[in-house]
Structure formats: C-alpha cells, structure tokens
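Re: duplicated header lines in exported structure tokens

Our pipeline writes sequence and tokens for each protein into one text file. With two proteins the header for the second block appears twice in some exports. Here is an export where it did not happen, for reference. First protein block:
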Amino acid sequence: MAEPHIANQVRTLRFMAGEMTQAELGEKIGMTRQTIAAIEAGKYSPTLEAAFRIARVFGKPLEEVFQWEE
C-alpha cells in the first residue's frame, strides 16, 4: 500500500502565473528555491503556515494547491 502524501499543483500554478521561478516564489514567502523544489517534487511537506502562504501568492484556496492523498 502506498504511503499517504500531499500532492500539489505548485509547479502548474507557477507556470500559469507568468512562469514564476522557484526562486521568485521562495522570495515571496520567505523560503529557499531548494525548499520550493522539494515541495514541488513531493519530497517535503510544507508547514501549514507555508502552505497557506503559497496558496495566497496564487490567490487560490489551500485545497486547490495541496491535496492529501491516502
């Protein structure tokens, strides 16, 4: 059985937001480009605060950016 994890649409949303870079997103929310890359790759789950900050940058509800997959 697969481990539950958090899927996300961060890469897609960055692309739709004028091809925003990982570094630009990181700067907006106070995280490094490497952390953004790890979140996008599903290797790292952001804190709840960081998840809300990311969603706010794109003007989306949290559930449109991050999905809990069991």
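Second protein block, exported in the same file:
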Amino acid sequence: MRFVKEAGIICGISAIGEILNALLPFPVPAGVYGLFLLLLCLLTGIVKLSDLEATGNWLLDAMPIMFLPACVGIMENFGEMKAVLVPLLAISIVSTITVFGATGSVAQWIIRKKGDKKK
C-alpha cells in the first residue's frame, strides 16, 4: 500500500507538471515543471522525503532499464550515424567534460558553504 501512495504522489505531481506545460507559454518540458514542483514540495515540507523514499529508490534502481530502447535505437541506426560519427563523438566528449566540471564546481561550492555555516 505504501508504494501505491508514493507512486500516486509522484504521478500527481507529474500530472500537475503536464497541466502547467499546457497552460503556460514557456518552452519548458512538463517533466521539468514536475521536478521543480516536487522540489518545492520537499523544501516547504508539503511532502516529506520519507513519503517518497521507497518508490523513489526503486525508480532510481530501475532507471538503467529505461535507457535500453534508446541504446537499441542507436544500434539499429548506426549505419546512418557513421556519416556524423566524428562530430557526434566530439560533442559527446566536450559536453561530458563540461558537465563533470560544472558538477564538481557546484559540489565544491556547496561543501565550502556548509563548512562556512558550521564555523
């Protein structure tokens, strides 16, 4: 019963994100609206982390399975991708390094801020 309640909360917030996507004129995907709503609910205490933890962990554990169809699609269309393989690899490498750098910088900044608050 716990999983049903947690999944219902997650689906409800996702549905509100879909509604916002239909109503608001901004070029933002519905999933992003849902994620920000969930973050807002967690930060304000409307929804507690313990109310979503089990289902959220299960979804994180199942996430790699969600990438299988995309990988199969890439393998099926590899012949068409050979023409743009070098630019595709260059973009992938540059964007990966950029994300690593940005994530590391933000993590270090957060750690420093937490250290400053403790002093």
